[in-house]
Design a protein that fits this description.
The strands form 3 sheets. Strands 1, 2, 3, 4, 5, 6, 7, 10, 12 and 13 form a 10-stranded mixed β-sheet that branches. The protein is 41% helix and 22% strand. The protein has 2 domains: 3-230 and 316-332, Spore Coat Polysaccharide Biosynthesis Protein SpsA, Chain A (Alpha-Beta Complex); 242-308, no CATH class. The chain has helices at 3-14, 27-38, 58-68, 82-95, 115-125, 184-190, 202-211, 242-257, 260-284, 292-308, and strands at residues 17-23, 46-52, 72-77, 101-106, 109-111, 131-138, 141-142, 147-150, 157-159, 170-172, 174-175, 180-183, 216-226, 316-319, 329-332.
Length: 333
């Protein structure tokens, strides 16, 4: 064996990492997700699965799994805290282990069996990076929305172009929690994701904190299949309940990380593309629809930004299901 290859093999063997998976009522997807994590060419030292109050067979499956494998650590939450709450709980648990890195994924993320091997091979050659990510694919096509770059004033961002995935590696500013890998020493510096976000923009906000120390190095050879349900797109797009969190959390994020100018530019963008859009469509009854639901979501999000705004993240307590000696709580700073 060549000296370089021997050194690389030792590097790979010595790596300790944890995986955090959040799940809610998707037992079959979770089973596939866990199977691919367990069969990594570089196995994880700990697999932390946060069960967000599932009501299907997930709890029974996880109980059996944790009894079979010592590497499995299940956290059963009493209420559904969304991806944001689940990742906060899981990453906190990962930071308490001896692992050096943490991989973050949802239950619908199916990583290739060499995902972490590809990530760590890139990490060995690019020691200055403390955060990494792979390529996210949907139905065999790269989903570019998961890796983005800041565009300048306003903390606005745009997707990395598909052609950059032809490179061996490339850097970006923002990564989703779909396959994000972070140095746990950095996690201990920057803290945990904001649990109160529930969903959407939790990973963007966390990326901005990471960005103060390191950009993300994207490794296209590390492939993740995202098994999402693709809904038929309509134009103009109508909202669902998730848009409330998108608008509210976007504004909270800019208030926390942006300058006065960033806030102004971001709000103008939001006004044109969201607030004014829905008001205008309601006035003209676009598509014979009153757009009242969309306008109501925007109104509620704007109202709740003022209620939730903090310079410091609100102290959260997320109760777990009793385990032997009773309930334990996870605290977020």
């Amino acid at each position: 064996m060549q000296p370089y290859m021997a050194q690389r093999k030792r590097f790979m063997t010595d790596i300790k990492y944890a995986v955090v998976i959040t799940t809610h009522n998707r037992e079959q997807l979770l089973r596939e997700c866990v199977e691919h994590v367990q069969h990594q060419t570089i196995p994880p030292d700990k697999i932390i699965i946060v069960n967000n109050a599932s009501t299907d067979g997930t709890g029974r499956y996880l109980k059996t799994l944790s009894e079979q494998y010592k590497t499995i650590d299940v956290i059963d939450l009493l209420v559904n805290t969304g991806g944001a709450g689940g990742f906060a709980v899981g990453i906190e648990r990962a930071a308490e282990t001896a692992a050096a890195w943490v991989l973050v994924i949802d239950d619908d993320a199916i990583i290739a069996i060499d995902y972490m091997e590809q990530i760590f091979a890139a990490a060995q050659q690019n020691a200055r990076y403390q955060a990494f990510a792979g390529a996210v694919t949907v139905n065999g096509q790269i989903d570019t929305c998961h890796r983005r770059n800041l565009t300048g004033i306003g903390l606005l961002s745009k997707n990395c172009k598909e052609e950059v995935y032809e490179q061996s590696c490339f850097a970006c500013d923002i990564a989703s929690f779909c396959g994000m890998v972070v140095d746990l020493s950095l996690v201990r510096q920057i803290g945990l994701p904001h649990a109160e976000y529930f969903i959407w923009y939790d990973d963007t906000e966390y990326s901005l904190r990471i960005h103060n120390y390191s950009r993300f190095l994207v490794v296209p050879q590390a492939v993740l299949t995202h098994k999402i349900t693709q809904l038929e797109k309509t134009h103009p797009r109508r909202y669902d309940w998730k848009e409330y969190y998108a608008i509210r959390n976007r504004l909270l994020m800019v208030q926390e990380h942006g300058t006065v100018l960033d806030r102004a530019v971001n709000f103008v963008n939001l006004f044109v593309h969201v607030i004014f859009r829905n008001w205008l469509f309601g006035v003209i009854k676009r598509d014979n629809y009153d757009w009242a639901y969309e306008r109501g979501l925007v109104r509620d999000a704007l109202r709740d930004v003022h209620k939730m705004h903090r310079k410091e993240t609100v102290l959260e307590k997320i109760a777990e299901r009793p385990k032997g000696e009773g309930i334990t709580n996870a605290y977020f700073k």
